[in-house]
Protein: Probable bifunctional tRNA threonylcarbamoyladenosine biosynthesis protein
Amino acid sequence: MSESAGSGDRMRVLGIEGTAWAASAAVFETADPSTHTDDEHVFIESDAYQPASGGIHPREAAEHMGEAVPQVVETAIEHAEERVAESSEDPASPIDAVAFSRGPGLGPCLRIVGTAARAVAQRFDVPLVGVNHMVAHLEVGRHFSGFDDPVCLNASGANAHILGYRNGRYRVLGETMDTGVGNALDKFTRHVGWSHPGGPKVERHAKEGEYLDLPYVVKGMDFSFSGIMSAAKQAVDEGEAVEDVCRGLEETIFAMLTEVSERALSLTDGDELVLGGGVAQNDRLRAMLAEMCDQRGADFYAPPAKFLRDNAGMIAVLGAKMFAAGDTVAIEESRVDSDYRPDQVDVSWRGRGAKRPDESATVDDRELQGAEATVRFEGDRVVKERKPRSYRHPALDERLRVERTRQEARLTSEARRHGVPTPVIRDVDPWESRIVFQHVGENDLREALTEATVRDVGRHLARIHDAGFVHGDPTTRNVRVGPAEGDGAIQTFLIDFGLGYYTQDEEDHAMDLHVLAQSLAGTTDDAGVLRDVAEDAYRETSERDGAVIDQLREIEGRGRYQ
Ligand SMILES: C[C@@H](O)[C@H](NC(=O)OP(=O)(O)OC[C@H]1O[C@@H](n2cnc3c(N)ncnc32)[C@H](O)[C@@H]1O)C(=O)O
Ligand SMILES: Nc1ncnc2c1ncn2[C@@H]1O[C@H](COP(=O)(O)OP(=O)(O)OP(=O)(O)O)[C@@H](O)[C@H]1O
Ligand SMILES: [Fe+2]
Structure:
């Protein structure tokens, strides 16, 4: 077995993909897998499964993989052999390692990929590398962009999530609460009677359509598609033009993804965004993200289409990085994992991650750019304005800004009536999306994280939940900490109720606690202890603690959230 990473100067890694619909093999050849260079070389051979009717049938997909994977693999190996023949090298093997998609994906398809990969590794006596397909969707963008530490949005068929990297792991900052984004579009097009895949058809028809209002659901940095999908189907059934529904779907769903990306950039103080996944082939999605990044002074990168949809090129690129880091897997331990989550991967090929300056995107001392709004400090007053977001359709933009401003003013005052410290509201103008608040606290919670302050937050959330509403976005930046007027005792204030709403549903209440926990995990390494403190305080205060905490465990147990 080859000892060092690569024979001669250049390393050649074979990649194999086949998680669902794309039987694909690739060769990635490079002198240095850690950075993108002009003389690296990628060859991809793919054979797509196209269902005769309906969506992807797992058994048919596996039959396709059984035939197509060996063929694309042979083509890629021949290509590697030609590359060797054209060079002056004389390696023992045309490839130095075999990287394969280990998951997530359809079990029967993954098993075929795993079997093929093991066979090739044994045939050439080279190491095997087990790659997480979702991380590959994002690492390929990081590779080509040269970004050091981007926030990563994955918009693929079966998934939708926003990831950030910290301390050796990709962390899930936010994700879909139900289906993947491509699957949502595909289900809609199936309802309309169009063939799979539906995403490209939605894009084509949207170009002919007028914007139509549809439900928009963002909770913290999580989002949901079930409401909008039912509404879209119903709209078509009730006679709305399908082009208009497609346009409404694109404008609404992609605005949701863009908003959570902006929130993630803001929360992590990031200034780079990469996009991956099959839905990223959509021009409107890329344009919205590019515009949002441009406006906040962040850099945006999406790879070319052949690296966005499922392909083995991305598996080979990440496989090469892992191989160079010595991150290989023994054949007997190389079983596939259909639920392999991106946050389970021990990242061997990156350092600790950038240590970010712990400050917000400050325009100047007296103005601050939040995730959603611009906040101006004027003496003891704070003027918060939701400025138009030009990436959004103007009708959707106005609706969101007016609704959230009204709701924020209302819930901020209502929380105070229930004994939760919040800033006093001095003035509201929904049509200008402007609220003037009393200035409260000295720091955001993220700079004042102690057991005492986190305990307060647990109590405050219990109080507002008992009063019948949720905060909607209780992150460490939406809590202020500082001495109270009068006795000067430290108080914690909840601010930014713009995503709050009235609900008695335990799931919604539990989501507040979940958003808090996720935000703690994104802010500090001691998140576990602090989360427990918040939960205990919640339990002591709440009238319905049992049901809510049970629901929280249920949410966490769904596996996506760890
Ligand atoms: C686990 C793995 O098997 C899965 N792969 C996957 O979903 O294939 P991917 O190639 O990343 O994405 C396919 C999806 O991408 C959508 N799609 C393709 N072109 C599109 C377009 N122009 N606009 C919107 N959606 C598009 C398709 O409708 C389909 O739902 C995943 O990454 O989640
Ligand atoms: N009343 C206030 N008193 C003191 N500081 C405030 C007040 N309101 C807002 N801030 C500061 O401004 C920042 C941004 O405000 P806010 O969270 O309301 O805006 P946003 O754009 O909705 O931000 P995000 O969506 O990132 O939470 C807060 O994190 C806080 O530091
Ligand atoms: Fe994919």
